Amino acid sequence: MRNLNQDTITQAVIERFSSTPDPRLKEIMTSLIQHLHAFAREVKLTEEEWFKGIEFLTRTGHMCTDTRQEFILLSDTLGLSMLTVAMNNQKPAGCTESTVFGPFYVEGAPHYDHGDDVANGARGEPCEVRCTIKGLGGEPVPHATVEVWQADADGNYDVQYAHLAHAQARGVLKSGLDGKLHFKTIVAEAYPIPTDGPVGDMLRATKNHPWRPAHLHFMIKADGYETLITHVFRDGDQYLDSDAVFGVRQSLVKDWVKRPDGSYLLEYDFVLNPEK
Q: How many other C-beta atoms lie within 10 A of the C-beta of residue 143?
């Protein structure tokens, strides 16, 4: 194909991908081309602006490591992560809602017994967490694998500290025969997402704050049930209505109750959706 212009190039590119054997990939590529070209036309994208865009994406890739995913941060702050979660996690009433995965999940977290302190030295006020894992019918879900992780009082996850030799404020537990589990940790605090990379530059340029309301991450897996990825948010946090990654759901907001000894208690029941 020769002598293509701004009016004919889009269809030519679509036709170039017309022999894609995977029908779903073909659908995605066709729509992607159409929308990217339409975007460029709508904003009258200049060559200088497109080169800056390429530079931005390149820097985003360079910021990614085994313990930090800048592309997830970008997706989160553009609302794309939460849109995808919402579209793919339409559950029956009564099931615990899903929310974003976040960029600081790490495989291979240490395993703990009920009552253990998963904070493992992380800075923060002491807190006890008591959970029950249930099915949609109210039945207890035994032997569920429950992964938890959170930031410390300084707003950092353990993987953000280069000097740490062990995991902090993250761990893996199993629910008992009654579906229950409990562990010690630290109180969740609001914190800013990392702003030392291109996503931070974008937030500053657009006058958006980087703060997330206080929350504790959970990923729960059990035979016969859909995997649940969610948070429990701390009630009263000033950023509940302006979460930088759009992840708050009212059903996931819970009070951290202060006890007479100065420690805190969080209690939450998770309801899993049965696998289809």
A: 12
Q: Are 115 and 180 in contact (CB under 8 A)?
A: no
Residue spans of the chain under pLDDT 70:
none
From the CA atom positions of the chain, what is the Rg in Å? 22
Calpha distance 50→63 (Å, rounded): 20
b/e code 166-175 from CB counts within 10 Å (16+ = b): ebbbbbbbbb
CA distance 126 to 81: 31
Contact yes or no for 252/99 (Cβ under 8 A): yes
Q: What is the pLDDT of residue 67?
A: 79
- What is the structure's pLDDT at 124? 97
Query: For residue 247, what are its two tokens?
Result: 């992840």
Q: What share of the chain is helix, strand, coil (3-state, %, to 5)?
A: 30, 25, 50
**Helix (DSSP H) and strand (DSSP E) numbers for the chain:** 6, 11
Residue 86 burial (C-beta neighbours within 10 Å; 0-12, 13-18, 19+): middle
H helices within the chain, ranges in order? 9-16, 23-43, 47-63, 70-77, 80-88, 198-205
Is the torsion defined by CA of 192, 167, 222, 233 positive or negative?
negative
List all residues 6 or more positions away from 91 whose beta carbon is below 8 Å from its beta carbon.
97, 98, 226, 273
- 3-class DSSP assignment, residue 126: strand
Joined together, the tokens standing for residue 194 give 């990392």
Q: How many residues does the chain have?
A: 276
- The count of C-alpha atoms lying within 13 angstroms of the C-alpha of 220, restricted to the half-sphere facing its C-beta, is 35
